[in-house]
Task: structure prediction
Amino acid sequence: SQQGEEDPQALSIQEGENATMNCSYKTSINNLQWYRQNSGRGLVHLILIRSNEREKHSGRLRVTLDTSKKSSSLLITASRAADTASYFCATAPTGFQKLVFGTGTRLLVSP
Amino acid sequence: DAGVIQSPRHEVTEMGQEVTLRCKPISGHNSLFWYRQTMMRGLELLIYFNNNVPIDDSGMPEDRFSAKMPNASFSTLKIQPSEPRDSAVYFCASRDQDRGMNTEAFFGQGTRLTVV
Result:
């Protein structure tokens, strides 16, 4: 399977703390994307990082990419209760148009 | 734009019945994906289309599953006959492939299928 893996599977923090999620994948990629899913809803795109980029920021989100290790991390700073959701990484394998999703991290932010 | 529209939102059917899930992608998007989500297997890519043509259906679990995209604004995923293990949330997503490889996908709200 090309499916990537994320860790931790679940993360529980307090509001104001930072949350870090990691993603590992198996193939060479064009880009890596992070998505968020609220319970019972569809996935929403958060941020995309290209294979030739190492770090990217968007608001409270910071994404890093290490193609030599085939890994990425998503950092959410100053978390809020509204950040409670599942977070998925998705890779766009080189030469393919598809997106392959990881196993996801369930984040719980307590007030 | 209303986003990717899937119907029905919920479907409960008896084992052996035919099930048809529908998807309307975002206007102008030329790539369409069908995913299945379960607790055990996560998000699995079943099939994707580019310009209405199926590109990769290697994720379709069995011959009981079929997908079509007769035009740029409509796709169906059909299961015949359905089985209890097909119970899952099925998502449709679309993307504007003409903008290049580095574009995001937009997801519908999903169809929750329960086969009893």
Summary: Chain A has no helices and eleven strands.
